[in-house]
Design brief:
about 575 residues; alpha+beta; seven-stranded antiparallel β-sheet; 17 helices; 32 strands; UbiD family decarboxylase
């Protein structure tokens, strides 16, 4: 397995899947625009060797295709995870016969963990910098309205102040000056929980940020693992061997020996400063909010260090392909952690948290609800906004297939639940208040109860200029903007209920052409509505339950107060177009 960043780059060179760009490039907007064009075309990783203002090369787009993700990790981590889960029944309780049967797995598991090496065996400790530690780093600015340059692949290591349990997470970091950055700990992030405990003790909180290292380290930092599962243990499992660490003689934390950079500092208690805006993976700017500040004390780095970065924005970006891998890796563990959940998928096209779906067990009536509540109570899945559940064996990655199966079985009187005044992901602004919003559960289990229409034939809809089915049972319509007619969704329901009643789901958007593919549909719809305020249906209350009637209308238009959609600056687009031949010969 690949032990560090440069080993991976060498593999990509042999595979002709990385391009070295020696032309001078600016980390302010130019690198990001080059990256976006290349990833849109499914192109190679990019190694920029002549970055203005820095002596360090920059590498991006390392994981921008499924093929490169496979090269980075190979099949063994997924096979090992399946073996581990499959062996649980064999090894519990352990017997000599069972232990012998799983001897190969046990041998593999003995390789997992960390091992301490000397400073001479830790290339990350070749150079130490204390004065203006950030001054030479080629930190990227991705979008023109960003609050400044941001670390976009930081591996943030923290330890609980009392238990010393560790967390490794990826939280963007805005660079304020040569010595300070922001620390974007959103709700339900492990590093943030550790910091909260330090704040209660009024202590400065030590943080070490790694850049580079084994690709497995990046995967572990973004993996939605249970809160108490050590990320370094997951890293070792993906690596298939022990992770090398070294003691930092001037810092509280051990260092990842094969990282490119190790940035150490402290976060003061009860201090916040404005952070943002930032063009994020939802495809919009997240706005300015107060977050903690990291005050950097020193940086270790390799003498020939390579700076890794990624660019986020509208899907599909690198996080899409990493998300696919991580869900495949972790999916065998879901039934063990959540009994009754057979399959689970969160959709990278929406930024993950806005939409999730699961295939669940329905061995007795309404067991599906037990699975829904279990999913909402599990780690980062607590931030799921819209959850779709079925007991049918469908491929969750193929959303039209899932949606049709559910809508065939969906009974509106019993199978739609909307919960208001719940938490939202920090990046989701549809709830109108930071970290606040609502959730919905849509259920389709058992035998089909209706035949879904695939074509709309009931004539014009008043106020609607475009009508297009997305899949059977789901009709997408567009008319005036929310600004021009905020009550359009409610009016459509009232005026056209009879025409639309055969369509269980009707979605109002700004342009119905989003039906062209799954990515456009999911991104537009699920990042632009809050269930409690933007779902419309006739209903009646019976025994404290809302019985809905078809159709269900969702208003997924852009609304006042939503952040701006991400578009590159025109002069940067022109510059990159003009220089394209210079970059790529």
């Amino acid at each position: 397995m690949i032990q560090d960043l440069r080993s991976f780059i060498e593999i990509l060179k042999k595979e002709n899947d990385v391009v070295e760009i020696s032309a001078p490039v600016d980390p302010n907007l130019e690198i990001a625009e080059i990256h976006r064009r290349v990833i849109d075309e499914g192109g190679p990783a990019l190694l920029f060797t002549n970055v203005k203002g820095s002596s360090f090369p920059v590498v991006t787009n390392l994981f921008g295709t499924s093929r490169r993700v496979d090269l980075a990790f190979g099949p063994k981590p997924e096979l090992l995870m399946k073996q581990i889960i499959g062996a649980m029944d064999t090894l519990l309780p352990p017997t000599p016969k069972a232990l012998w049967k799983e001897k190969d797995l046990i041998f593999d598991m003995l390789k997992i963990g960390t091992k301490t090496v000397s400073k001479s065996e830790a290339p990350v400790m070749e150079v130490l910098k204390k004065q203006k530690p950030l001054s030479d780093l080629p930190v990227i600015t991705s979008w023109q309205e960003d609050g400044g340059p941001f670390f976009t692949l930081p591996l943030v290591y923290t330890e609980h102040p009392e238990t010393k349990d560790h967390n490794l997470g990826m939280y963007r970091m805005q660079v304020y000056d040569d010595q300070t950055t922001g620390m974007h700990w959103q709700i339900h992030k492990g590093g943030g929980f550790h910091y909260h405990e330090a704040e209660k003790k009024n202590e400065h909180f030590p943080v070490t940020v790694f850049l580079g290292g084994p690709p497995a380290l990046i995967a572990s930092a973004i993996a939605p693992v249970p809160e108490h599962l050590p990320e370094l243990l997951l890293t070792s499992l993906i690596l298939g061997k022990k992770l090398k660490t070294a003691e930092n003689p001037i810092g509280e934390h051990r260092l990842i020996a094969d990282a490119e950079f190790a940035i150490h500092g402290k976060v003061p208690p009860h201090f916040r400063r404005p952070e943002g805006p930032f063009g994020d993976h939802y495809g919009y700017y997240s706005l300015i909010h107060d977050f903690p500040e990291l005050r950097i004390e020193h940086i270790w780095h390799r003498k020939d260090a390579i700076y890794p970065a990624t660019i986020v924005g509208k899907p599909k970006q690198e996080d899409y392909y990493m998300g696919e891998f991580l869900q495949r890796l972790l999916s065998p563990a879901f039934p063990m952690a959540m009994p009754g959940v057979k399959q689970l998928w969160t959709y990278a096209e929406t930024g993950f948290h806005p939409l999730a779906a699961a295939v669940v067990r329905e061995s007795y009536s309404r067991e599906v609800l037990a699975s829904a509540f279990r999913i909402f109570g599990e780690g980062q899945l607590t931030l799921t906004k819209f959850l779709i559940l079925t007991d049918q064996n469908v491929d969750l990655e193929k959303f039209p297939q899932l949606f049709e199966s559910v809508l065939e079985r969906f009974e509106p009187k019993t199978d739609l639940f909307i919960f208001n005044k719940t938490s939202h992901d920090t990046l989701d602004y549809t709830g109108k208040k930071l970290n606040h919003g609502s959730k919905a559960v849509l259920i389709g289990v058992g035998e089909p109860i209706r035949q879904l229409p695939g074509e709309y034939t009931n004539g014009d809809l008043t106020g609607i200029s475009k009508i297009a089915p997305y899949c059977k049972g789901c009709l997408v319509i567009s008319g005036k903007s929310y600004k021009d007619e905020p009550e359009l969704a409610a009016r459509i329901l009232k005026a056209n209920k009879e025409k639309l009643k055969k369509w269980p789901m009707v979605i109002l958007v700004d342009d119905a052409d989003i039906t062209k593919d799954q990515t456009s549909f999911l991104w537009t719809v699920f990042t632009r509505f809050n269930p409690a305020t933007d779902m419309y249906a006739d209903s009646e209350i019976r025994q404290h339950h809302l019985n809905y009637e078809l159709p269900i209308v969702i208003d997924a238009r852009m609304k006042p107060g939503y952040p701006d959609e991400l578009f590159p600056r025109e002069d940067i687009v022109e510059l990159v177009s003009k220089r394209w031949g210079e970059y790529f010969g």
